Amino acid sequence: MSFTSLSPVQKNQYEQDGYIIIPSFLNQDEVDLLYGLATGDNALRNHAFDLNDQTGKRTKLTLWFTPGDDTYGLLTRSERMVKSVQTLLGEGEVCHFHSKLMQKEPKVGGAWEWHQDYGYWYKNGFLYPDAMLSVMIALTQANQENGCLQVLKGSHKMGRFEHLFAGEQQGADLPFVEEALNRLEKVYVELNPGDALFFHSNILHMSEANLSDRPRWSLISAYNLSYNVPFREKNTSCITPVKVVPDASILESDATGLSEQTDFLKKEQEITLNVK
Ligand SMILES: O=C(O)CCC(=O)C(=O)O
Ligand SMILES: [Fe+2]
Question: Which GO terms fall under molecular function for this chain's record (predicted)?
Fold first, then answer.
């Protein structure tokens, strides 16, 4: 049975644990279409950049803000996606902050230190962490061998930790992370292609390098409610309500790549690399 909507039990689970996994959020045809574009689309390839972890291993990613009429844009604007985000964030207008195609290559794909996404977004000048979440969709199998995401269950209730540079990333203040690790359960988020993980902006998460010989690719889309107006972020996608499209439009788009006019992020524009 394909996914339709989140239940009140699932919403409650998100509030308790800070995350929820939805198996088969996308069907196989949708995954095939998206993964084909991820590896074949010129715009996605041309606008990719590398971020180094502390050991110099690199993760390739492509980040864009405004969702268009391409296949990825339609996915991030789909009724299934926006309704799920609405259920979890509650009242307000759902806006798409940005999406990132995470390309964690075999042997070279770098690690991500323990962090909260709001550790970054605070620096963009957002004031309401409860109005923000991320959705990770697996495009390939993600498991312990190829560096799947790890989350610290319930850590969103601890509030925002201080974040400091770790390589070109932001890492949460280590003594606090260690204390949190002693108190909470660490969960390896193993996903099949098409599974989705919805997670709160303050949940602590990390991933290890991909030392396997299989890629670990995923899409991470961040959403925000329009009242949460940031005072540093200049791109307005995060305060522009999403124009919702029917779920069927993803397959109907028949592998449409991103437009070269898309507002892709250039690495030198990344606020967390510039703001102290
Ligand atoms: O893809 C991963 O392993 C983690 C990425 C992440 O947490 C992020 O980009 O904020
Ligand atoms: Fe993150």
Answer: 2-oxoglutarate-dependent dioxygenase activity; iron ion binding
